[in-house]
Amino acid sequence: MSAAKQETTQLLLDLADGTAEAADKLFTILYDDLRVRADLVLRRESRGHTLQPTALVHEAFIRMVDQRRARFSNRAHFCAIAAQAMRRILVDHARRKHAQRRGLGWRRVPLLFGANQVAVDRPEDVLLVEELIQSLAGVDPRQARIVEMRFFGGLSMEEIAAALDTPLRTVEAEWTMIRAELRAMLGKRANK
Questions:
Q1: What backbone phi and psi angles, to 5 degrees, belong to 13?
Q2: CB atoms within 10 A of CB 84
Q3: 175 and 150 in contact (C-beta within 8 Å)?
Q4: pLDDT in tens, 42-87
Q5: Which of 3, 9, 106, 118 shows the shortest CA–CA distance to 48?
Q6: How many beta carbons lie within 10 A of that of residue 12, not counting itself?
Q7: What ranges do the domains of the chain cover?
Q8: Can you point out the beta strands (E) in the chain?
Q9: Which of 57, 72, 96, 191 has the CA that lies 20 to 30 A from 31?
Q10: Residue 105: how many CB atoms within 10 A of its CB?
């Protein structure tokens, strides 16, 4: 294990033990990585999105380290939990926006899933992804976590495999099925 990974793991353990300065050091070490992930996630959103990557990272980090029972086993686990925190923030944001606007003049924006695209018409499509996650959670919790980490955390297939302790080929195969399901959901919505 590299020195940087060892330091991160130690800081995560210190954070779990309640060491106050561990959160500040951890934030400094992981900030750039989380900022890049947040930027990737927000690029999938509509152009007029009011959240900025910096605000998303700060809010997610605060939610994560503010938990009394936060236990992160390693960097991959931390990034997976960060994806979950970003998901919650974006879904809450989308719900507020949807409640305010109720569908006024949205524009089509491509939502990138690797090399393939899935068309997203409105900000409430974040809510559609949330609906997919909720439906998957009852049937296949691992697939729900894959969507969460990929869509809301911007994690690569390799990072998801590491976080889930699952073979990369399995994660890739499941992502292919999930993408098809999302396309079908978006297609049904477009035909309404």
A1: -65, -40
A2: 19
A3: yes
A4: 887 766 667 888 888 888 888 887 665 667 888 888 888 888 888 8
A5: 106
A6: 21
A7: 3-190
A8: 109-113, 116-120
A9: 96
A10: 6
